[in-house]
């Protein structure tokens, strides 16, 4: 695996050169970070689950006409993706107050927002991914006005689709983060959905109990992170009863054998 040329290593994923020009391999690690990487740890089997969950969601989004970088899953931890030029903006969509919105504006976590809010953060670890306004994006040329419109339109479509998908399995989609990238076709750039959609970048609460089924379990030391991610995968129908743990076991065995 590591014989391939590594292009980039992030906090939760590694990107390798793909088999054809314009493709990359996205490898999902078990590493978890929070609070701008000040808190570090690992969630056993997270990479396997996020690979599978993200594959499922990107496939469904593709089927409703949202363009994504996803091509196909290769194995338990890897997927083949289109190479894009990442737009240095994190697009956060919020339906319910939580996290930094609650902190910043003093709105109690769990408060339904009067309307869906889209926020933009500048992707820069050294600066701690600061909240920015459209004006900053335009002024510094991080994305064009057309690209901003495309990203906002896609974010709303993704939110509507995912809110329904999760509601159908008893989960409230509180908020989530998206990243987009450009692909070049005959000198024209087109924006497509990139990165991943998984419990790492979403807040997912059980509708009946408000139990957190996402990375907040790690951020807030609640425990049961792996079980929460497994529960999301199970409800999405990705793991027949009893299979979730065996898949993870298998993966652990492989790692022990050094494969
Ligand atoms: N998020 C993310 N990566 C980031 C920041 C936020 O995936 O670098 C996601 C986070 O999981 C949550 C949503 O975006 O679903 C809103 O996050 P928030 O601004 O509340 O910040 P956080 O509490 O995650 O630091």
Question: Can you describe what's shown?
Answer:
Strand 2 (13-17) and strand 3 (23-28) form a beta hairpin. The protein folds into 2 domains: 6-83 and 225-251, Phosphorylase Kinase, domain 1 (2-Layer Sandwich); 87-206, ATP-grasp fold, B domain (D-amino Acid Aminotransferase, Chain A, domain 1, 2-Layer Sandwich), CATH 3.30.470.20. Helix 1 (46-63) runs parallel beside helix 6 (225-235). It has helices at residues 46-63, 99-105, 134-140, 145-167, 216-219, 225-235, 243-256, and strands at 6-9, 13-17, 23-28, 31-34, 39-42, 70-73, 78-82, 85-86, 89-96, 112-122, 131-132, 171-185, 188-194, 202-206. The mean pLDDT is 94. By secondary structure, it is an alpha+beta fold. Strands 8, 9, 10, 11, 12, 13 and 14 form a 7-stranded antiparallel sheet that branches. It has a 5-stranded antiparallel sheet with strand order 1-2-3-7-6. Bound molecules: uridine-5'-diphosphate (UDP). Uridine-5'-diphosphate binds next to strand 9, helix 2, strand 12 and strand 14.
């Amino acid at each position: 695996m590591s014989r391939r040329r590594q292009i980039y290593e992030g906090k939760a994923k590694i990107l390798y050169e793909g088999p054809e020009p314009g493709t990359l391999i996205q490898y999902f690690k078990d590493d978890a970070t929070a609070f701008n990487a000040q808190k570090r740890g690992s969630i056993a089997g997270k990479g396997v689950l996020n690979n599978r969950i993200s594959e499922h969601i990107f496939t469904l989004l593709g089927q409703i006409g949202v363009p994504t970088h996803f091509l196909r899953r290769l194995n338990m931890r890897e997927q083949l993706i289109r190479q894009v030029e990442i737009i240095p903006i994190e697009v956060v969509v919020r339906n319910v107050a939580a996290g930094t919105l609650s902190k910043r504006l003093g709105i109690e976590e769990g408060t339904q927002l009067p309307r869906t809010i889209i926020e933009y953060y500048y992707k820069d670890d050294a600066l701690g991914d600061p909240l920015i306004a459209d004006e900053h994006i335009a002024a510094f040329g991080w994305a064009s006005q057309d690209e901003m419109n495309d990203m906002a339109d896609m974010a709303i479509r993704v939110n509507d689709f995912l809110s329904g998908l999760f509601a159908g399995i008893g989960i409230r989609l509180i908020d989530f983060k998206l990243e987009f990238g450009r692909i070049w076709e005959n000198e024209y750039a087109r924006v497509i959905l990139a990165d991943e959609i998984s419990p790492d970048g979403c807040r997912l609460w059980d509708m009946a109990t408000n139990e957190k089924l996402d990375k907040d379990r790690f951020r807030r030391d609640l425990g049961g992170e792996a079980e929460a991610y497994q529960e999301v995968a199970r409800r999405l129908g990705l793991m027949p009863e009893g299979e979730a743990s065996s898949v993870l076991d298998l993966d652990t065995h492989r790692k022990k054998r050094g494969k």
